[in-house]
Amino acid sequence: MTIKIINRSKHDLPTYETIASAGMDLRANLDEPVVLSPLGRAIIKTGLFIELPIGYEAQVRPRSGLAAKKGITVLNSPGTVDADYRGEIGVILVNISNEAYTINDGERIAQLVIAKHERAEWIVAEELTETTRGAGGFGSTGVK
Running DSSP on this structure, what letter comes out for residue 13? Predict the structure, then answer.
């Protein structure tokens, strides 16, 4: 699959780090560092603009190392870039740690996964098929 991309950042295009990687790292494209205070959030621009084919989305996901080591994660995870969006990709980062964190230009801040999706067509009904689980949710299938 090929995807059109405009790179207005100071950095190389995102790439897959290994042959089996699902995501590509997104880098911060900043003129000056951004400090995220504890529980602070910011939209960090990437300088990237993409044109996805209809039927695909780009999912913006946290980087596990940044989340585990520093408490920095993607607030609306996963963020969705729709096929008809043509603006700059931004990443909503949040600091869920107790310490301020500085985001620097070029830092790997999130990963981008390209995914195919389906479109649903609703069928209005009065009843749904019964299952063993039924309406049980929020941990109802776990060990008790």
Answer: P
Q: Which of 81, 64, 95, 117 is nearest to 5 (CA)?
A: 81
Residue-number span of the structural domain to which 46 is assigned: 4-116
Q: What span, in angstroms and rounded, lies between the C-alpha atoms of 134 and 138?
A: 12
C-alpha count within 13 angstroms, C-beta hemisphere, residue 78 = 17
For the ranges 12-26, 97-111, 128-142, the lowest mean pLDDT is seen at: 128-142
CATH number, position 61: 2.70.40.10
What pLDDT digit, counting tens, does each position of 66-77 carry?
999 999 999 999
Please name which of 46, 50, 96 lies closest in space to residue 75, comparing C-alpha atoms: 96
Residue written as token pair 């950095």? 11
Task: Measure the CA angle with vertex 1, ends 89 and 75; round to 5°.
Answer: 30
The answer as to whether 108 is a domain residue is yes
With a CB cutoff of 8 Å and minimum separation 6, the contacts of 61 are: 23, 74, 77, 78, 79, 110, 111, 112, 113
Q: How far apart are the C-alpha atoms of 56 and 54, rounded to whole Å? A: 6
Round to the nearest angstrom and report the end-to-end CA distance of the chain. 45
